[in-house]
Amino acid sequence: MIEALTSKQRSHLKRLAHELKPVVQIGKGGVNDSTVAAVRDALTTRELMKVKVLDIAPDRALETGDALVKSLEDTHLVQVIGRTLILYRPDPEQPEIRLPS
């Protein structure tokens, strides 16, 4: 498990995520194996991403984000904005995003 993000680091990641579009959508199936696999695959090519939780999803966005983070190693739920999640997982070998200390 990686260290918790500081408020300064969260703020930095929120700024970087502002222009991003959601990469994965979570619908009526909620957080299941295929959803977790889709998010994991997306996080292999990017460190920061948005996930859209649709109205038909069985859980609220915060609950969905918590479930995803528990299912994915070294992943942070940076922010929940309405039904949009911002997830961050640093690349273990060559991180592109430099977090402020």
What report would you give on this structure?
The chain is built from three helices and four strands. The chain has one domain: YhbY-like (Translation Initiation Factor IF3). Strand 1, helix 2 and strand 2 form a beta-alpha-beta unit. The longest helix has 13 residues. By secondary structure, the chain is α+β, with helices and mostly antiparallel strands. The model has no long low-confidence stretch (mean pLDDT 94).
How would the blueprint of this fold be written?
Layout: H1 7-17, E1 22-26, H2 33-45, E2 48-53, H3 61-71, E3 76-81, E4 84-88
Parallel strand pairs: 1-2
Antiparallel strand pairs: 2-4, 3-4
In short:
Helix content is 35%, strand content 22%.
N-to-C SSE string, H for helix and E for strand: HEHEHEE
CATH class: Alpha Beta
Q: Identify the strand order in the major beta sheet.
A: 1-2-4-3
β-strand amount: 15-25%
Number of strands: 4
For the report, how would you describe the main beta sheet?
4 strands, mixed
Uncertain ranges:
none
Number of helices: 3
Envelope shape: globular
Overall mean pLDDT stands at 94
CATH architecture: 2-Layer Sandwich
Structural class: alpha+beta
Task: Supply the number of structural domains.
Answer: 1
**Helicity level:** 25-40%
